[in-house]
User: What shape does this take?
Amino acid sequence: MTARIIDGKARAERLVADVGAAVAARVAAGGSRPGLAVVLVGDHPASQVYVRNKRRTTEAAGMRSFAHDLPAATSQQELLARVDRLNADPAVNGILVQLPLPKHIDEEAVTERIAPLKDVDGFHPYNIGRLVLKRPTLRPCTPYGCMTLLKDTGEDLVGKHAVVIGQSNIVGRPMALELLMARCTVTVCHSATRDLPGLVRQGDIVVAGVGRAGFVRGDWIKPGAIVIDVGINRTAEGKLTGDVDFAAAREIAGWITPVPGGVGPMTIATLLANTLRAAELQDGTA
Ligand code: NAP
Assistant: This one.
């Protein structure tokens, strides 16, 4: 079997267009134009690329983009004061502080300072707690984007065994909660997991968020499984590649996301959908 490719790039373009149409309708009806503030501290090269893409796509969807580029030496107090100002600014509906932050800044303190209804990354304990309780408000972008891709396959997710590899706060854990909410049976694996290949072989759905190129082998995949590769790794030649051995896995899986062009574009598109929702939540139209 050769897997069907889940085209995240095309799906993300459709989502951005849908958000753009909703923004235009909102503005035409007299509503405010949603605004997203993206804060970048320092000059981490990968973060600069991510932030540039986020800002460009925000404008493509007809939203206002507010750039806050701060020097690497910014103190935690200064950053928290900036977040406070953005929390109070009615033109700003969403706030994203690009991670990782320089080592002298406590990421948790910054994440928790963002007003929950402006937390478009969905990382604030309020939003994670709502997801745990099956009453999500603003949902972490990468797992939420993965759910859109999974639902688009048209496969019935209920009762499927989903195996998530990775348990980080931004990928694995919220992914497991999303899958549980979709009524999958969920196994979460991490670096202390025993017999990882044996567990992955049970997965009707496999989500890989490890950060190691080609880590998930083709012969770990159950025939017909849906494989979602969240990993973004750069090879020695500078190419982007996922956590799954794509060439081998696509011969066995039923569906598979490529890297690039899979989960990555969906993360940004979902961020914009979250920003529109944040604006609606703030003015009570959600
Ligand atoms: P992370 O915080 O480093 O977490 C990696 C996870 O993988 C950890 O839970 C770790 O387990 C687990 N792991 C490491 N080695 C393992 C092994 N040998 N067996 C089983 N599990 C193992 O990384 P992250 O932030 O979640 O990111 C994961 C990947 O996704 C990266 O490639 C990142 O670039 C990518 N990413 C992509 C997007 C996107 O939009 N596509 C968004 C975010 C991240 P322990 O918890 O036991 O250490």
